[in-house]
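[stage:ingest] chain + small molecule (guanosine-5'-monophosphate)
[stage:ingest] validated
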Amino acid sequence: NDKLQIVKDAIKTYVNFPKEGIIYKDIFGVYQNVTAMRAMNDLIINHVRSLEKIDVIVALDSRGFLLGPIISSELGKPFVPIRKKGKLPGNVKRESYTLEYGEATMEIQTDSISSGKRVLIVDDLLATGGTMAASIKLVKAIGAEVVECLVLMELNSLNGRSKLPVPVFSLIQYN
Ligand code: 5GP
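[stage:predict] done
[stage:export] tokens:
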């Protein structure tokens, strides 16, 4: 697949960032190359069009926000953010978890999705799966259903998808 190779080639790898021992995959390399950005958007849109009845797109702070609104616009479905703690106004639900590097708390606005809606959660990268697992809990906590988690990149060796009770789609996998 030509488009997939263009996207893969545009992702930059940084060793020992943000900490010793972490191999960091940088999605912004894709955004610096418009051909790669469009190829990535085409591939993602092609996949989400195959999904059955998605009502809401949820994306994760902050690089998920690069992908979520594009999917939302294409499907004609609303976009809702899950953010790091303290950034969302109004009533929120909160979930804490362990990250590949550090600890974090994520929040969703309690009135952002009505109960029973079918949700697609989007982020740039799945590592240990902690962020995504917490996000699934948050969506469920406000009464909605997670249909699938979509990421651009998945780090297979960390086996994040085994933590997740829903299907995971990744465009690119690293071993
Ligand atoms: P997890 O919770 O799965 O361990 O980590 C995933 C979260 O951390 C995602 O929100 C992702 O943006 C960020 N993350 C972890 N490792 C990397 C990486 O190598 N590159 C990028 N871009 N994000 C990472």
